[in-house]
Structures are given as structure tokens and as C-alpha cells.
Amino acid sequence: MTRIGGGLNLTKQEWIKYGALFLLAVAAFGVAGIALTNPRAPGEAVSPLTASSPVATATPTPTATATPAPTATATAQQLKIQLPAQPVLLILGDSYTAGDGADRPGQGWAYLVADALGYPTNIDGEGGTGFAWGGGPQDSGAREYEIRLREAAADPRFVPNVLILQGGQNDALITSPDEIQTATVQTIEAARRLWPGVQVVVLGPSAPQPLAEELKGANSAVRAGAAAAGAPFIDAYETGWFTGANSPGFDFDGAHPNTAGHAHLAEKFLESWATLTQ
User: Fold this and answer.
1) For residue 219, what are the CA distances in angstroms to 88, 170, 175?
2) Of 50, 125, 165, 213, whose CB has the highest number of CB atoms within 10 Å?
3) What is the CA 63 to chain-centroid distance, rounded?
């Protein structure tokens, strides 16, 4: 073949030769296309992909998206506790645990639950406190739950092996969800160090309507903290223990339940408790 002035001058034999080569190339590409679109005959076994196969790197494995990651809610709800042979219970929380709003403290939800369960129980309720909120109008009371757990552990005469942490209402005063979540995790972990083997359950914040609607962020943060620490979470907010319909009959002062409201809380808690201890 001779190149002159940018054109091509071919002999007849050369045209025939290159034409035959072109036809062979077309046929080869056709076979490759069929192989790619129909890699195996019906009924033919599938060969496992190898690391060197281009298909192996281009096609995601079936397990990549088969199982979505569990949410904090699902994780917390799936957890259960193993009751010791002789449960000794500590219920620690805020003014709800203290029984505020009930006609008598003994009619508070925590006291009703303790009576129903029948375990040796200490009840530690202190108004205005939380996992991260230490009490006082400026969060200056230094009465966070972890501090109070350490105080309880200082008494060797009472050693709980089951702990219920109730609260989050006052933590709603904190603007950082991460701070609430971190404090919840630290409180649970502190309890486990203080009493090795203790079974911890978290009861999230609740309140009659319309105050309940202000607790969504704190509830999510406490729930996430419980899930991160591997503790079961009883979600009174998301499951609607207090609704627009029942709140008028259960409300004491807009922030606390009355005697009937405490009885309602105890009933709902015991229903959840039964599912956690089955």
C-alpha cells in the first residue's frame, strides 16, 4: 500500500484481503455481543465469579442492600432483660417518679409499679432533674441521674440488680440532642460499673397534651442513648400514652399527671414490662 497526497491506492487483491478481514471482525463482535447478553444456556449451572472477572467488579453483591441497618427505635424495642432469680429494684427519675401530681406520693406510678411487681424496691425521684439536666432554673443543681446513682451506690445495704431510669422531660430544656444522648449512655454505663450485672430499662419522657408535643426531640435523644448503650427503651411518647383525648382526665397542672394519670402510667408501664421480661 502506498500513501500519496493523503489518499489510499489499493490493488484489487488488497481490497479483497481487507474486506475479508473486516467481515471476520464483524462476526467476532457479533459472537461477543451474544455471549454478553446470554452468558449461559437455560439450565446451565452458574459459575462463581472470580476476583479477576470484570463482571465481579461491576455488579454489586446481593447482600449489599438486602438488609437495611436497624434504626435506634427498632434496636431498643427488640432488646429484653433477663430477670435475676431474686430481683432487687431501683427506680430513679424526676418528679414523675417522686409522685408529683398524685393525691399522695404512694399513688405515683413508680410506687404502683413497685407494689405490682413485689420486688424489694427503692424509689428515688427528684423534681427538675434528668439525664443531662442537673436541676435548678439554670441547670446548676448538679443532680443529674449519674450523680444520684453514685450516691445510691454508696449505701452498701441496698444493691439493686434491676434499674429503671425514668425521664427526659427536663432534658427537653437542653438544646443539644447530642448532649442528652451522651448523658443517657454515660448514665447507663455508670450504673453497670456501680452494680455489675444490673439489668437497665429506660422509660422515656411523657406528659399530658399539649406539653407532650414539646418532648419529641428529648425523647429521640434519650431513645438513641438507650440504644447505643444496649438498654431496652420504653417509648411512652411514640406509642401515645397521653393523647388529646385522654389528657384532660389525666392532667394535674399541665406538666404532671394527676392520680388517675399516674395509675395510667403504671398500667402502661407494666404492659411494656411484661414484653421485656418474657
Assistant:
1) 27, 11, 13
2) 165
3) 22
